[in-house]
Amino acid sequence: MDSAVAFLTSKIPFLASLPFWVVAFLVMLVVALVILGFALTYEGIATYIERKVAADIQVRIGPNRVGPNGWFQFIADGVKLLMKEDLIPAKADKFLFVLAPYLVFVGSFAAFVVVPFGISLIAADLNIGVYYVMAVTSLVVIGILLAGWGSNNKWALLGGMRAAAQIVSYEVPVGMALLPAVILAGSLSLQEIIRSQGGYLGIFGWNIFHNPFTFFSFFLYFTAALAETNRTPFDIPEAESELVAGYHVEYSGIRFAFFFMAEYGDMFVVCALAAALYLGGWQVPFVDVSGLSPLLANLLSLGVFLAKVIALILVMMWVRWTLPRLRVDQLMRMSWKYLVPLTFVNVLGVSVWVLAFDGKGIPALVMSLLGR
Amino acid sequence: MTAREIYEVLREKFGEEVVTEFQEENVDPPAVVVATEKVAEVLTFLRDDPRTLFDSLMCLSGVDYEDRMEVVYHLHSMTHLHKVTVKVRTDRENPKVPTVEKVYPVASFHEREAYDLLGIVFEGHSDLRRILLPEDWPGHPLRKDYVYPDSYHGIKV
Amino acid sequence: MEIERLPESDELLINMGPQHPSTHGVLRILLRTDGELVTGAKPDIGYLHRSLEKIAERVTYAQFMPFTDRLDYLAAANCNCAYAWAVEKLAGIEVPERAEYIRVIVCELNRIASHLIAFGAFTADMGAFTPFLYGIRERERINDLFEMICGNRLTYNYARIGGVSHDLPDGFLDELKDFLDYFEPKIDEYNQLISYNKIFVHRLANVAVVSKEDAIAYGLVGPNLRGSGVKWDLRKDEPYSVYDRFEFDVPVGFGEKGTVGDAFDRYMVRIREMKESVKILRQAIEQIPDGPVMAKVPRVFKPGPGEVYFRAENPRGELGFYIVSKGGTSPYRLKIRTGSFTALTIFDKVARGHLIADIIALIGSFDIVLPEIDR
Question: Do the chains C and B touch each other, judged by at least 3 C-beta pairs below 8 angstroms?
Answer without folding.
Answer: yes
